[in-house]
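Changelog note: in this version the structure field was regenerated for every chain. One regenerated record is shown below for reference.
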Amino acid sequence: QVQLVESGGGLVQAGGSLRLSCAASGRTFSNYHMAWFRQAPGKERDFVAEIMSNGRTFYADSVKGRFTISRDNAKNTVYLQMNSLKSEDAAVYYCAARDGLALKYDYWGQGTQVTVSS
C-alpha cells in the first residue's frame, strides 16, 4: 500500500515556475514507477509525466521542454518542476504510483491546484 501527498501548488503568473512535490509512504518507493497527471475543469485526467523506477522519464508532448520530473528515493519523493507555465497548464495535478508489475496506476494522491494567471 502506498499513500501519496502532493504539495507545492498555487497561483503563478504565465511564464512563471512552480515545483510540485509528492511524498510517498512505504519502504519500497524505489521500486515504484511514479507519474503526474492533471485534470482541468470539465476535462478528463491527462498524463503529464512519468519517471520509472530506473529513472527513465516520459512526457506529454504539451509539456516537453518545460516540465521536468525527478525523484529522490532517499526522501520517498517525486517532483515536477514546471517552467514557462501557460494558462492551459492550470489544473489539479495528481501524483500517482504503480509497482513494477502493474499495468496501470493504482495509487493516487488527493491533488494540488495549479492556477496560472495571464
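Spot check on this record: The chain has a mean pLDDT of 96. The CA atoms of residues 33 and 52 lie 4 Å apart.
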